[in-house]
Design goal:
Largest sheet: 10 strands, parallel
InterPro entries: 5peptide_repeat, PA_immunity-related
Organism: Winogradskyella bathintestinalis
Helix content: under 10%
Shape: elongated
Strand content: 15-25%
Protein name: Pentapeptide repeat-containing protein
Number of helices: 1
Radius of gyration: 17 Å
Structural class: mainly beta
Number of strands: 10
Length: 190
């Protein structure tokens, strides 16, 4: 199916809850201060797009393409990224709230999460090699059979990762947050 192409366009302060975004392929577009809450973005293509100060909570992203997409200062609650088109999937999140999102069974290698709130995020069976979790709050996020080899957790906090059920070879942690690896062993650290 050929989608209409939108190239190098800027969208400002639009409420897509009231005004439905035209289904299409958006390339090098910027969405600033837009409300997508509960919007149906299924089968959309976003390539090299920027979302700045947008609300994308509970959006439907079934078969949605995110290729080299950047999210800055966005509220993204409860999004099931696991439903996205996995071909060329790549994104970066800075200063975002990603609570209750799911990356279940996705390959998100080399993704950068910078200064994000990531409470109760599901990384079960996710391949997250070389992922950066810089200054991220991972409170009650699930790492189960997750491949986080070479991932950077040195400034992440509130995580609990069981080394016996996850692949953590060459992942980086700091002395301050190492207790997140030992919680599952019920060890007391003083």
């Amino acid at each position: 199916m050929n989608l209409p192409l939108k190239d190098n366009e800027n969208y400002h302060s639009i409420d897509y809850y009231k005004n439905v975004l035209t289904k299409g392929e958006y390339t090098d577009c910027t969405f600033t201060n837009c409300n997508f809450e509960n919007a149906d973005l299924s089968n959309f293509n976003f390539v090299e797009c920027h979302f700045v100060e947008c609300n994308l909570s509970n959006v439907n992203v079934i078969h949605t393409t995110f290729n080299d997409v950047v999210f800055n200062d966005c509220k993204i609650l409860g999004v099931l990224f696991t439903n996205c088109n996995t071909f060329l999937l790549s994104f970066k999140f800075t200063n975002c709230t990603l609570d209750l999102c799911s990356f279940y069974q996705l390959k998100i290698n080399q993704t950068q999460f910078l200064n994000c709130s990531m409470h109760q995020v599901d990384f079960t069976d996710t391949e997250a090699k070389h992922v950066v979790f810089k200054d991220c709050d991972l409170y009650q996020s699930t790492f189960d059979r997750t491949n986080i080899e070479h991932a950077d957790f040195t400034s992440a906090y509130n995580f609990q990762i069981n080394p016996t059920i996850n692949r953590i070879k060459k992942a980086s942690f700091s002395k301050e947050n190492i207790s997140g690896l030992l919680e599952s062993f019920k060890i007391k650290i003083k």
